[in-house]
Amino acid sequence: MITNPNHTTPAPATVPGSPRVALEAWVARVASLTCPDAVVRCDGSPDETARLTQQLVDEGKLIALDPERRPNSYLARSAPDDVARVEGRTFTCSRTPEDAGPTNLWRDPDAMRAELDDLFAGSMRGRTMYVVPFSMGPVGGPISQLGVEVTDSAYVVLSMGKTTRLGPEVLRAIGAGVPWVATVHSVGMPLRDAAGTERSDVAWPCAETRYIVQFPETREVWSYGSGYGGNALLAKKCFALRIASVMGRDEGWLAEHMLLIRLTSPEGRAFHVAAAFPSACGKTNLAMLQPALPGWSVETIGDDIAWLRPGSDGRLHAINPEAGLFGVAPGTGADTNPVAVETIAADTIFTNVALTDDGDVWWEGLTPEPPAHLVDWTGADWTPASGTPAAHPNARFTVALDRCPSLAADVDASVPIDAVVFGGRRSTNVPLVAQAPTWAEGVFMGATVSSERTAAAEGTVGELRRDPFAMLPFCGYDMAEHWSHWLDIGEQLGAGAPAVFQVNWFRKDQDGSFLWPGFRENARVLEWIARRVEGAVPAVESPVGLLPDVADLDVRGLAISDAQLDALFAVDPDSWLEECRRTEEFLDEFGGRSPAVFTAVLDERRAALHAAA
Ligand code: GDP
Ligand code: PGA
Ligand code: MN
Ligand code: MN
């Protein structure tokens, strides 16, 4: 039943008046729909952060960690069924289903607005509604965008304070007429119903019904029922990828699921690399890489999202629109990612990790041996004999980027991209590294990536699925159109376009062990990529791209046999022909809208595989 006469708020652009007035009018409309007890306008100040933190601790929603061991850090435990993005409840409400494409769940926008009206009506009763103005990228930057998130979760406000630029300068820019994206979030658990019956709060409020809804044309996001990560921090996946990808299509730029690094060679040449891997496939680790090769260094610019725009110099320029990290905790340890370990030594919110008896945190992979006793992510006693993971596999840390010791000093500036890298988690077939001979073949490589599912989203872990550009859950419009957009941008860039590569750190031997040591040793692959960009080393042609000449991949000091190296680069014609068959099936899902050049690339690949068979 619709308990409020106001229809769900119109898009901000259709609210009359100046943008600041439009913001106020929009906030008022959301409040009159959701009926919070109070409206608080956030500015991200230290006082506000301290007040909200204390409030969450008092309410039992955050556990303060021992300030000696983990200063200014907190643990949150989610509801056991609210632990990852919910792709099955994520909707793209473009005007037509064709615009959403076959990889998105489409709903008619008007029908969805009516459903949202019912859900959000009174959804904040008994709670405070926070208004969070934020900037993606530095305020006023050439690739930056503004947004506002309205939320009834103080945990979300604190997380947004770490991962976005939240502050009064955003309101000033909105007041000066800069457009902004409107996002609304409710955990969907009012503390009072329409009749006035109260219910008590819980440590992690959420609802059984969940909706993560994007309206691409009106640049709006509505999220209901979840408090977790990409479902609730709406600046991240919902805005910076789903909505921004549509803005980029319309305005000639790209919003991508990519880390950004600056790699510097021993000769002092800087290479900027943008790499797209699916969730939980190694972006944060590569972004913080400490090269195992002497003389090489890596500076971190971003670990999850890049916005890229062709510059007047004919090159592709990129920024990290975020200001913080929402990183996977399990597997993060001193031997795999020491930079992350240092980054999260203080000022961090941990979610769904285990609590130690001395008030610190632990997760699988933090240390080689687990402590003898822990409280696990569900709040239950845990010992190594428990037989269950102490931390949830998608447990996360939330921390501001400025704590990262390898952060680039000029992180606010845009950087010209030298290499685009696509990756995934493939135990078979895909070589350690290959270069695309042309831009079109690079776009094909990105479009046809498949990867084994991880715990970052609901679904069966390990199952192979297509994840084009690592954007399957994040592209706000028809994926085939996204590929054409990439081809157009390549055409525009011409000789200034980045080189394109594919990597796979996850190939396994017959016993199921990783063939490649990964982590800091991935610098050896980055070195080859940089040398290819420089034109300093030749490459060997294969049916699936240009491979390194074994002599050019520096494996000195690695315990890796020639047989293992061969296995890392093996291209088995039969299994690749089968892969081609499945690729064709996948491209057919786009009903003739997949770029014509892909057919040519696939035909060529098949001919080369037949010749090699
Ligand atoms: P992201 O979600 O894409 O940012 O991925 P992360 O960097 O957080 O890594 C996800 C998981 O993959 C973690 O458990 C890592 O320890 C693991 N991982 C990352 N890089 C590598 C690698 O090079 N080799 C292997 N075997 N595992 C890796
Ligand atoms: P990541 O980001 O797993 O790519 O780090 C969060 C997510 O994709 O949900
Ligand atoms: Mn991600
Ligand atoms: Mn990450």
UniProtKB/TrEMBL annotation:
<feature type="binding site">
    <location>
        <position position="257"/>
    </location>
    <ligand>
        <name>Mn(2+)</name>
    </ligand>
</feature>
<feature type="binding site">
    <location>
        <position position="237"/>
    </location>
    <ligand>
        <name>Mn(2+)</name>
    </ligand>
</feature>
<keyword id="KW-0210">Decarboxylase</keyword>
<dbReference type="GO" id="GO:0004613">
    <property type="term" value="F:phosphoenolpyruvate carboxykinase (GTP) activity"/>
</dbReference>
<dbReference type="InterPro" id="IPR008209">
    <property type="entry name" value="PEP_carboxykinase_GTP"/>
</dbReference>
<feature type="binding site">
    <location>
        <begin position="519"/>
        <end position="522"/>
    </location>
    <ligand>
        <name>GTP</name>
    </ligand>
</feature>
<feature type="domain" description="Phosphoenolpyruvate carboxykinase GTP-utilising N-terminal">
    <location>
        <begin position="26"/>
        <end position="249"/>
    </location>
</feature>
<feature type="binding site">
    <location>
        <begin position="228"/>
        <end position="230"/>
    </location>
    <ligand>
        <name>substrate</name>
    </ligand>
</feature>
<feature type="binding site">
    <location>
        <position position="425"/>
    </location>
    <ligand>
        <name>GTP</name>
    </ligand>
</feature>
<dbReference type="InterPro" id="IPR035077">
    <property type="entry name" value="PEP_carboxykinase_GTP_C"/>
</dbReference>
<feature type="binding site">
    <location>
        <position position="85"/>
    </location>
    <ligand>
        <name>substrate</name>
    </ligand>
</feature>
<dbReference type="InterPro" id="IPR013035">
    <property type="entry name" value="PEP_carboxykinase_C"/>
</dbReference>
<keyword id="KW-0312">Gluconeogenesis</keyword>
<feature type="domain" description="Phosphoenolpyruvate carboxykinase C-terminal P-loop">
    <location>
        <begin position="253"/>
        <end position="605"/>
    </location>
</feature>
<comment type="subunit">
    <text>Monomer.</text>
</comment>
<keyword id="KW-0456">Lyase</keyword>
<feature type="binding site">
    <location>
        <position position="396"/>
    </location>
    <ligand>
        <name>GTP</name>
    </ligand>
</feature>
<feature type="binding site">
    <location>
        <begin position="394"/>
        <end position="396"/>
    </location>
    <ligand>
        <name>substrate</name>
    </ligand>
</feature>
<dbReference type="InterPro" id="IPR035078">
    <property type="entry name" value="PEP_carboxykinase_GTP_N"/>
</dbReference>
<keyword id="KW-0342">GTP-binding</keyword>
<keyword id="KW-0464">Manganese</keyword>
<protein>
    <recommendedName>
        <fullName>Phosphoenolpyruvate carboxykinase [GTP]</fullName>
        <ecNumber>4.1.1.32</ecNumber>
    </recommendedName>
</protein>
<comment type="pathway">
    <text>Carbohydrate biosynthesis; gluconeogenesis.</text>
</comment>
<keyword id="KW-0479">Metal-binding</keyword>
<dbReference type="Pfam" id="PF00821">
    <property type="entry name" value="PEPCK_GTP"/>
</dbReference>
<keyword id="KW-0963">Cytoplasm</keyword>
<dbReference type="InterPro" id="IPR018091">
    <property type="entry name" value="PEP_carboxykin_GTP_CS"/>
</dbReference>
<feature type="active site">
    <location>
        <position position="281"/>
    </location>
</feature>
<feature type="binding site">
    <location>
        <begin position="280"/>
        <end position="285"/>
    </location>
    <ligand>
        <name>GTP</name>
    </ligand>
</feature>
<comment type="similarity">
    <text>Belongs to the phosphoenolpyruvate carboxykinase [GTP] family.</text>
</comment>
<feature type="binding site">
    <location>
        <position position="304"/>
    </location>
    <ligand>
        <name>Mn(2+)</name>
    </ligand>
</feature>
<feature type="binding site">
    <location>
        <position position="279"/>
    </location>
    <ligand>
        <name>substrate</name>
    </ligand>
</feature>
<dbReference type="Pfam" id="PF17297">
    <property type="entry name" value="PEPCK_N"/>
</dbReference>
<keyword id="KW-0547">Nucleotide-binding</keyword>
<comment type="function">
    <text>Catalyzes the conversion of oxaloacetate (OAA) to phosphoenolpyruvate (PEP), the rate-limiting step in the metabolic pathway that produces glucose from lactate and other precursors derived from the citric acid cycle.</text>
</comment>
<dbReference type="InterPro" id="IPR008210">
    <property type="entry name" value="PEP_carboxykinase_N"/>
</dbReference>
